[in-house]
Amino acid sequence: MEKKFKPGTLCVQAGWQPKKGEPRVLPIYQSTTFKYETSEQMAKLFDLEESGYFYTRLQDPTNDLVASKITELEGGAAGMLTASGQAASFYAIFNICSAGDHIVSAAAIYGGTYNLLAVTLKKLGIETTFIDQDASDEEISEAFRPNTKALFGETIGNPGLAVLDIERFAKIAHKHGVPLIVDNTFATPINCRPFEWGADIVTHSTTKYMDGHATNVGGAIIDSGNFDWDKYADKFPGLTEPDPSYHGLTYTKSFGKGAYITKATAQLMRDLGAIQAPHNAFLLNMGLETLHLRMPRHCENAQKVAEYLQSHPKVSWVKYPGLKEDKYYELGRKYLPDGSCGVLSFGLKGGRDESIDFMDRLKLAAIVTHVADARTSVLHPASYTHRQLSDEQLIEAGVAPDLIRLSVGIEDVEDIIADLNQALEI
């Protein structure tokens, strides 16, 4: 599929390109293994001398075709699917980091990712410094060290709805000779393509809008192919020096723009195995086919709901980039001109207890840990997804104690507002 096609066409047509007599719909290659005629053929695959499939823990045709679709939507060079969004975040970072390395990350990110960076990666010897993404260039630059290997942020922070200044962050990252990794889950490539603003690697929890129906967990990593690993060879020896587990093969020399994803597949997926099941990739592809139709509806509904909540006397504050009064309105206009996402956050004047009581009174909106699917859902992050964080970390991550995260679905917006209204008026 040529990149001249618009996103809506890519959502439907990219990836699987059937030939004469082949199924029109992407097949599920539900097999652990793939047959070859000779031992030599298999040996070349294991040595990365030829491309192909031999074991689904590493690669599967269904997965690769769906990854190809997402790669085209993002405008990237190569991509891969993972078993979850958390696996995508971990692989994206661990692919270029090892014990003794350091990361700089925005603090206003998803609680699970914050914990991954602050706790789990620390156990592996990888330290993270969290910064205020709205701080000055100088303040952010002070967080970098000689052993810093990446700068990380989210296009739209979950759940604080902070919009990342991608272009500025890319310049800071490149000034220090490291790639910018951006989690683009909430915006999706329908509303923002971070590579166009200088980002180098994009991750997704495909569990969210890409799947869109809360049916399967998954993740994706897309590489722009633009970061010059060889220019900073001493920082990234895993990509620029011979890999002893593949007879001294050097990824940047052998795979060019595909070096980063090839290494993530050949090393991390081989050894850690967080592969997405082919059937899940099949379901994900079905979700992607309507992504360009659903995102505008999510955004349209969320805008109306945000305006309703903003005008309600019992609501103390609302965060949504589409509101002119919002702190991130101007950044939203720059990076998300067609809409941000269907997620917004707000607080009630009664505080934390009132927020919880309000959620219990909702009838159409469901209290679930999930977010960003067709159905309207609600959550109190401080009590659930971010409960592992201290009060200080909650504030740093942009999660106020009274924050309610509302994921506005694609139902009729009048029904959504009516449900909110009856829960507020009691």
In short:
The protein is built from 17 helices and twelve strands. The chain has helices spanning 7-13, 39-46, 61-74, 85-94, 111-123, 137-141, 166-175, 188-191, 237-240, 251-255, 259-272, 278-288, 291-311, 329-335, 351-361, 391-396, 413-425; strands spanning 78-82, 102-106, 127-131, 148-154, 180-183, 201-205, 219-223, 315-319, 343-348, 366-367, 377-379, 404-407.
Describe this structure in words.
By secondary structure, this protein is of the alpha/beta class. The chain contains 17 helices and twelve strands. A seven-stranded mixed beta sheet has the order 1-7-6-5-4-2-3, sandwiched between helices. The chain has a five-stranded mixed beta sheet with strand order 8-9-12-11-10. Helix 8 links the parallel strand 5 (180-183) and strand 6. It is globular.
Return residue spans where pLDDT drops below 50 for at least 5 consecutive residues.
Answer: none
Over all CA atoms, what is the radius of gyration?
22 Å
Q: Count the E strands.
A: 12
- Chain-averaged pLDDT: 93
Please list the strands of the largest sheet in the order they lie side by side.
1-7-6-5-4-2-3
Number of helical stretches of at least 4 residues: 17
Q: DSSP strand (E) fraction?
A: 5-15%
User: Major β-sheet, in short?
Assistant: 7 strands, mixed
**Category by helix and strand content:** alpha/beta
How far the N terminus sits from the C terminus, by CA atoms, comes to 54 Å
Shape: globular
What is the chain-wise order of helices and strands?
HHHEHEHEHEHEHEEHHHHHEHEHEEHEH
